């Protein structure tokens, strides 16, 4: 496994396993520089969203990098107040425009809005069929939301992007996704820094001469997930990309697997009907 290693989605499209997140990266030079650093480390997968308000800066960084379009993978997400068929179609165009791109690699519904998620999905299917995005998927969907899709979706989502780390080891959701051939993508893999001082994690990191952040990213990779760490600091971006020269032993994976405490740093979609 290396930094551009991919997983093949259920429609044959290859997604790089290591992505780079830009949630809370400030619009302007902060995001532009962060994406530029990520590309320098060799990362080719950037995860943005309409609500992050930095799609423009991501696009700018990609353009300035001169990485050929076919060599990078970009995800964006339809935000809640843009859901619904017509608004999704319109704001997808706006996202493309703002990023200066002619297609998106992966388009997601950001959140399972009860009243609008079905018609929003129809819009994503239309955009996919028109080849304006190479893959479509969802985010923050529980098993129930995914099961419901079996009744109305003509296309199975390629991805479900959810919060996932050892402290929120969502085994049931992961197993369901594996069975349905939906690739699970882990967001907030570093617990936004909240658990980096966990004693068990720190002691495992010491055994490999790695940092707790690197162990958390590697844990996701060894569970065959796509993983999206975020940082705006050059040295941390480098650190977070430097996870391909070691392997966590089975015994340590099991210890990390046992850390689950349903700890969340992001919104919990469990009770969304
Ligand atoms: N679909 C969704 O609803 C959803 C929700 C949340 C996140 N996401 C995606 O997932 C990405 C990652 O999640 P996240 O941003 O919530 O959290 P995260 O990646 O778990 O953590 C980011 C935080 O950790 C810090 N950090 C980064 N690397 C570090 C390191 N090596 N050592 C110590 N601290 C470090 C960052 O600070 P600095 O930036 O100051 O370095 C930032 O405060 C997002 O950017 C976004 O693309 C999606």
Description of the structure:
This protein is α/β, with parallel strands linked by helices. It has a single domain (6-257), classed as TIM Barrel (Alpha-Beta Barrel). Helix content is 40%, strand content 15%. It is built from ten helices and ten strands. It has helices spanning 29-41, 55-65, 85-99, 117-129, 143-152, 171-180, 199-208, 212-222, 234-241, 250-257, and strands at 6-8, 14-16, 20-21, 45-47, 73-78, 104-109, 133-139, 159-163, 183-187, 226-227. Strands 3-4-5-6-7-8-9-10 form an eight-stranded parallel β-sheet. It has a two-stranded antiparallel sheet with strand order 1-2. Helix 1 crosses helix 2, helix 1 packs parallel to helix 9 and helix 3 (85-99) crosses helix 4 (117-129). The chain is globular, with a radius of gyration of 18 Å. The relative contact order is 0.14. Residues 21-24, 47, 110, 139-140, 161, 187-193, 196, 211, 213, 228-233, 236, 239-240, 266 line the site of NADP nicotinamide-adenine-dinucleotide phosphate.
